[in-house]
Design goal:
Elements: H1 8-62, E1 68-74, E2 77-82, E3 89-94, E4 97-101, H2 103-143
Antiparallel strand pairs: 1-2, 3-4
Length: about 140
């Protein structure tokens, strides 16, 4: 079988295309890495909300009779106080709107919020897994 000679110019163009493709892959990898960091930060925020919701549910269960409480006044400061009405809780339903609810309804509201948080955590984990898979694909390709 005769040797087929490939023109030098064609080989150089192929190398240049491969180089450009690798550069694009590296850039994509960097973008995915940033996106993964953002998802990680969002997941941490969601986890804090989950912990807060669980603590709120526990506090609602303990609201039985007037007793001494620590009430937050902001910036990590609290005052001692007593609540006078264990039959009504003000629930922030969004945009700073407070809605009076009985403790059982407030607990149900928080349970719904926990379910939303759980779904969001699953979505974030799924997105992160896709990004990691794509990053692994790129890393394998670039290493060749």
């Amino acid at each position: 079988m005769p040797d087929i000679k490939v023109p030098k110019k064609m080989l150089e163009e192929e190398k240049k295309e491969d180089s450009n493709e690798m550069q694009n892959e590296v850039i994509l990898y960097q973008l995915l890495h940033r996106q993964l960091n953002q998802l990680s930060a969002e997941a941490e925020s969601v986890e804090r909300k989950a912990v807060e919701a669980a603590a709120t549910k526990q506090s609602l269960k303990e609201l039985k009779s007037p007793n001494d409480l620590l009430m937050p006044i902001g910036s990590g400061c609290y005052v001692h106080g007593k609540f006078s009405n264990a039959k009504q809780v003000l629930v922030d339903i969004g945009a700073g709107v407070l809605l009076p609810k009985n403790p059982a309804d407030a607990e149900a509201f928080i349970a719904d919020r926990e379910a939303q948080i759980t779904r969001l955590k699953a979505e974030l984990q799924g997105e992160a897994a896709k990004i990691v898979n794509e990053m692994n694909r790129i890393a394998t390709k670039v290493k060749r």
